[in-house]
Design brief:
The chain is about 55% helix and about 15% strand. By secondary structure, it is of the alpha/beta class.
Length: about 190
């Protein structure tokens, strides 16, 4: 366990060198919100939980009261997800929602430890075709995901636990910056 903690600390320290990227992501989200855009977040498994967590922080509140922000997790509508998977196949579960809901004024934030999940990549292809801004969070290699992103945060590890721990820290920092902006604490 001590070795795992040491590895966690190493990965977080590597993330500290990418704070400028996290600030850019937050500022770009703020700018898109100001222009009337919405944020759509997606991922599989633990990343699906992270997508829901991000949306909850922005729609509700993170630490301080401020206006509600338009963030939607594409991982939560079980009727849509199961209908699309049943009728069109698993690779379409997010892309079909992107096609139906996302505009060029919006943002799509995809989380994928490997960066190679076919349903995530299909969603990014759909978002790119629409002209939406794309944010990606992935593991060390970034896989195919990184090629679709305007902003891509890569945790310096390949194991899902270390990557997701680092993603959580990173998206909390982004949410904090966004919230402070809307609460008047620029």
């Amino acid at each position: 366990m001590k070795d795992q903690i040491a590895e966690h600390v190493r990965v977080v320290q590597a993330a500290a060198a990418r704070v400028g990227l996290l600030e850019e992501i937050a500022d770009s989200i703020i700018a898109r919100f100001a222009a009337g855009g919405k944020l759509f977040v997606l991922g599989n498994g633990g990343s699906a939980a992270d997508a829901q967590h991000i949306a909850a922080e922005l729609v509700g509140r993170f630490k301080i009261d401020r206006e509600a922000l338009p963030a939607i997790a594409l991982t939560t509508d079980t009727s849509v997800l199961t209908a699309v998977v049943n009728d069109l196949g698993g690779d379409s579960c997010f892309s079909r929602q992107v096609q139906a809901l996302v505009t060029q004024d919006d943002m799509v934030w995809a989380l994928s430890v490997s960066g190679t999940s076919p349903n995530v990549i299909a969603a990014l292809e759909a978002a790119k075709a629409i002209g939406a801004m794309i944010i990606g969070f992935s593991g060390k290699s970034g896989g195919k995901l990184k090629g679709y992103c305007e902003f891509c945060f890569l945790a310096d590890h390949a194991a899902s636990d270390r990557v997701q721990e680092t993603h959580q820290l990173a998206y909390h920092l982004i949410c904090d910056r966004i919230e402070k902006h809307y609460a008047g604490g620029h």
